[in-house]
Amino acid sequence: MKVRPRLALAVPETGPEPTPASLGLLAGLSSMRWRVQHFRSRACPTGTEAVGQASGLPGRHLDAWLMPPDVCREVFARGSQGADLALIEGTLDEPTATLSCEHHDRPGGLRPIARALDLPTVALLACPRWEGLHLPELPDGVDAILLDGLEDPTEFDRIAGAVRMILRKPVIGAVEALPDVRAELAASPRSAPVSELLIARLAESFRRFVDLPALQALAQSRPFPIDPIERDRPGGSKFRVAYAQDEAFGGYFPDTLETLETLGAELVEFSPLRSESLPKDADLVMIGCGFPDRHAEALASNLSLINALRFHVYKGNRIYSEGGGTAYLGRTMRIGGRDFSGVGILPFDAELRADPTPPVPVTCKIHCDTWLAPRGTEVRGYYSPRWDLRPTGELCHCAAGFGPLSDVGEFFYHHHAVGSLVHLHLAALPQVVAAFAGPHRPSLTLRQAGR
After folding, report:
1. Residue 165 burial (CB count, 10 A)
2. In which element (H, E) is residue 50 found?
3. Cis upstream peptide for 12 (omega within 30°)
4. What is d(CA 365, CA 254) in angstroms, rounded to the nearest whole number?
5. Which of 160, 163, 145 is nearest to 218 (CA)?
6. Domains and CATH numbers, the chain
7. Is 350 in contact with 327 (CB distance < 8 Å)?
8. What is the 3-state secondary structure (H, E, C) of 306-356?
9. The pTM is what?
10. Average of pLDDT values for 100-114?
11. What is d(CA 447, CA 451) in angstroms, rounded to the nearest whole number?
């Protein structure tokens, strides 16, 4: 068994996530030329720019609700390749909120992930000052402590000594209170970058107190349960995936594209805003989530690309879309009372909601045979109700079976195009992602909706 250096960072259930302390750890180690990969403990599709700024690597996701333990290990092993340390942030507390993205800055459950990956666990412990110091009972499974919110650096040794004596756990470091830094972080949108000075101050604070040998020894203390990367994978023919990537689209989990690559995909970018045609010989087109509403006029005016997408489906090739990409594939997009032409493949009109709610977890059962999955297949994902999709009884530009594909989550199909408002973490759905690589099931014979 190989050693994959890894740590769980157990943080309070109330958040925020990522915590300033975890950003300090990422930035501090990165400034010492460590390659550190951060994982969220749930795959809610809400990005965090600060993680990438602190580590230089895009954040990744694990999710015990979506992923059984073997899939969790596969996703982790692939995502942590080449890292000097993988940090999985989550909570050991019993969650008080329902599983949703309403509180998207809160951590997910860490315990099942820690069991699946056999994670050494560091608890983040608030110890602002010596006076009035109160040390809580630690949850089971904690191996070490990282002090948080230290107000007076001169008190570090005294507080750390008390923690070691009373809780009988090593202290691997601390991050200072830095109230102005924390206030700026709390006020910053997750999708926007934060000040580089803010990241630098957190890094400096972490470096000041870290016990690097202790941290390194703990991270390397356990062999990885398995090494999935070295397993024999089923061979398959090469196939070409054209995926939308520009200012309007690009919401993909990193593991989704990497999973397709492991199955033999050649990934090629195209831009619905600027490309006049699809990449040559594309077997599959993917249009992920994004913000077509911010670029609706430019998207509607790119008739060359719209015709290319229609012809792609007419020839019997496949399209898969999620979220904003699905709204774009409908007949029209209604935004603020104005109608903009969509691609006209999927059988609905899309309307942007004035006050959308956060994504929520859903389990969908596919009730028609398509290339994506046979009838009866259940998939889990996060449904993002940013758009209303209003089905139409009219055929779009390609004649074939069409209609809803599931009773939950706004799944639709038309010919070989499948789209929904559900964000699927494809790495967590091996039975579905295999369909992306294999020969698709014919959908030309599907009955039309209502027949």
Report:
1. 9
2. helix 49-55
3. no
4. 25
5. 145
6. 6-228 (3.40.50), 233-437 (3.40.50.880)
7. yes
8. HHHHHHHHHCCCEEEEECHHHHHHCCEEEECCEEEECCCCCCEEEEECCCC
9. 0.80
10. 78
11. 7
Q: How many CA atoms lie within 13 A of 308 on its CB side?
A: 19
State how beta strands 378-383 and 360-365 pair.
antiparallel
Of 288 and 235, the one with more pLDDT: 288
- Does residue 202 surpass a pLDDT of 80? yes
Q: Compute the half-sphere exposure of residue 79: CA atoms within 13 Å on the CB side of its CA.
A: 28
Element counts in the chain: helices (H) and strands (E)? 13, 23
HSE-up (13 A, CA, CB side) for residue 125: 30
Which of 125, 127, 93, 120 minimizes the C-alpha distance to 107? Answer: 93
Q: Edge-to-edge strand order for the sheet containing 284-287?
A: 265-270, 239-244, 284-287, 318-322, 417-420, 412-414, 402-404
Place of tokens 């199955």: 263
Encoding tokens for residue 378?
């259940």
Phi, psi of 127 (to 5 degrees): -135, 75
Peptide bond into 120 cis (omega under 30): no
Number of residues that this document lists for the chain = 451
Give which of 447, 440, 342, 350 is closest to 396, Cα–Cα: 342
3-class DSSP state for residue 149? strand
Residues of the chain with pLDDT > 90: what percent?
52
Q: What is the DSSP letter of 153?
A: G
Q: Which residues of 276-310 are buried (b: 16+ CB within 10 A; e: fewer)?
A: eebbeebbbbbbbbbbbbebbebbbebeebbbbbb
Structure tokens at 337: 């009372």
Residue 404 has pLDDT above 90, yes or no: no
Residue 33 clears pLDDT 80, i.e. is over it: yes
pLDDT, one tens digit per residue, over 67-97 is 889 889 988 998 898 899 999 999 998 755 4
